[in-house]
C-alpha cells in the first residue's frame, strides 16, 4: 500500500497523489513528421502521461512549435501532456534564451492544449513568476524541477529543493539526481518519504543511472507519484522500457 496524498491533482482522470503510480513517456522528436509518428506509437502504449521535450525539436519558431503541438494532440487525444523546454544546464539538448522560452510558453498556453508545464527551479523566482502569470486562470499545472546529472546531493539539500519548489508555487516538485551508489538511491527514497509526510502533496522523484534504476520502480512506495519509461529513445539515463516498467508496477501496486 503506497502513500496517498491529502492533496491530489486530477488531470483528465489521471490522479497525481492517488493510489496509482503514473507512467510518463517522453517525446524527443526533432521535427513534425517524426513527432506525429512517435506520438502515435506512444499513444498505442497507453501511458498515463506524455511529455514533449521541446528542446529536442529542431525549430525554435513559435508557429512551428504550435503547429507541432496541434498535430501531437491529434495523435495522443485525451492523454495529459507535459510541455517541457529543458534548460541546457539541466540536460536540455540545446541552448534557448529565456526570453524565447517565455514567448513559446505564452503561445502554447493560449492554445489550451497542454496540461502541465515543467520549469527548472534553478531559473529563479522572477522567471517562475513570469511563467505563473502566463498560466494563471488557464488550468495548467506547474512542475518545478531540479536535475543533477553528476551526483545525488545530501538528503538535506534534496529536501530543501522540494520545499523551495512548493514555496515558489509548484503544484508538483520534481527531483532527478544521479546515483553513484545504492546509498544515494536509498537517501533519495527516504528523503522523498520525509518530504511527502511534510507537504502531503504530489511529488516526482527518481535517481538516474544504473545504480538508481530501482528508484523508478519502488519510488511509489516512498511517495513518488510518477515515473518515466520509454519507447524508442530514452530521455534520461536509467529509464526502463514501457512494457517492462508497466509489468513491474502492476505487480507492486
Automatic annotation (TrEMBL):
The keyword Membrane does not apply. Pathway: Metabolic intermediate biosynthesis; chorismate biosynthesis; chorismate from D-erythrose 4-phosphate and phosphoenolpyruvate: step 3/7. Keywords: Amino-acid biosynthesis, Aromatic amino acid biosynthesis, Lyase, Schiff base. CDD domains: DHQase_I (cd00502). Pfam families: DHquinase_I. InterPro entries: 3-dehydroquinate_DH_AS, Aldolase_TIM, DHquinase_I, Type-I_3-dehydroquinase. It comes from the Bacteria. The active site is at 147 (proton donor/acceptor), 174 (schiff-base intermediate with substrate). It catalyses: 3-dehydroquinate = 3-dehydroshikimate + H2O. It is an enzyme of class 4 (lyase). GO terms for molecular function: 3-dehydroquinate dehydratase activity. 3-dehydroquinate binds at residues 51-53, 86, 216, 235, 239. Its EC number is 4.2.1.10. Involved in the third step of the chorismate pathway, which leads to the biosynthesis of aromatic amino acids. Catalyzes the cis-dehydration of 3-dehydroquinate (DHQ) and introduces the first double bond of the aromatic ring to yield 3-dehydroshikimate. Belongs to the type-I 3-dehydroquinase family. Homodimer. This is 3-dehydroquinate dehydratase. It comes from Acetoanaerobium pronyense.
Amino acid at each position: 500500500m503506497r502513500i496517498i496524498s491529502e492533496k491530489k491533482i486530477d488531470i483528465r482522470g489521471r490522479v497525481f497523489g492517488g493510489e496509482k503510480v503514473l507512467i510518463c513517456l517522453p517525446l524527443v522528436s526533432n521535427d513534425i513528421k517524426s513527432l506525429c509518428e512517435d506520438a502515435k506509437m506512444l499513444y498505442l502504449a497507453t501511458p498515463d502521461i506524455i511529455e514533449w521535450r521541446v528542446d529536442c525539436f529542431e525549430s525554435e519558431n513559435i508557429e512551428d512549435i504550435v503547429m507541432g503541438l496541434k498535430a501531437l494532440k491529434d495523435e495522443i487525444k485525451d492523454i495529459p501532456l507535459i510541455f517541457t523546454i529543458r534548460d541546457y544546464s539541466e540536460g536540455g539538448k540545446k541552448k534557448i534564451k529565456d526570453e524565447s522560452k517565455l514567448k513559446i510558453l505564452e503561445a502554447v498556453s493560449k492554445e489550451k492544449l497542454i496540461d502541465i508545464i515543467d520549469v527548472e527551479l534553478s531559473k529563479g523566482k522572477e522567471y517562475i513568476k513570469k511563467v505563473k502569470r502566463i498560466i494563471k486562470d488557464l488550468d495548467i499545472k506547474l512542475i518545478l524541477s531540479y536535475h543533477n546529472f553528476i551526483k545525488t546531493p545530501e538528503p538535506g539539500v534534496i529536501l530543501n529543493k522540494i520545499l523551495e519548489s512548493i514555496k515558489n508555487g509548484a503544484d508538483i516538485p520534481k527531483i532527478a539526481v544521479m546515483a553513484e551508489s545504492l546509498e544515494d538511491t536509498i537517501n533519495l527514497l527516504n528523503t522523498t518519504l520525509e518530504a511527502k509526510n511534510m507537504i502531503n502533496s504530489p511529488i516526482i522523484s527518481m535517481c538516474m543511472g544504473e545504480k538508481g534504476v530501482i528508484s523508478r520502480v519502488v519510488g511509489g512506495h516512498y511517495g513518488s507519484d510518477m515515473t518515466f519509461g520509454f519507447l524508442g529513445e530514452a530521455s534520461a539515463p536509467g529509464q526502463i522500457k514501457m512494457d517492462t516498467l508497466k509489468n513491474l508496477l502492476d505487480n507492486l501496486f
